[in-house]
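User: Sequence in, structure out. Go.
Assistant: Echoing your sequence, followed by the structure tokens.
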Amino acid sequence: AETENLAKKVSNTNDVYFVPAFTGLGTPHWDPYARGIIIGLTCGTTKEHLVRAALEGIAYQVKEVVDSMTKITGCKPECLRVDGGAAANNFLLQFQSDVCGLPIQRNNS
């Protein structure tokens, strides 16, 4: 994936943060009025930093869901099962695995 290759070109987001809340925020926030935001832009920000920040933002949203489920149920999932277009992005899945502390199981259907 193009985004995977771009994200791998930089070692961090250069302090750029991206909240992908284009249609509000779902669980655990339930705020339909939340909006997406990008902060930390400087003259040194590159498209690679923006892409990496977007992918990390997705992974952190998944972490919030996993943490919320774990808190409510008292059970942490054994793994994250993923599918869809984003599941083809190895950078995203590895980062998601790292921040959630869970292995990833990709659906091959």
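User: And one key feature?
Assistant: The longest strand covers residues 17-19.
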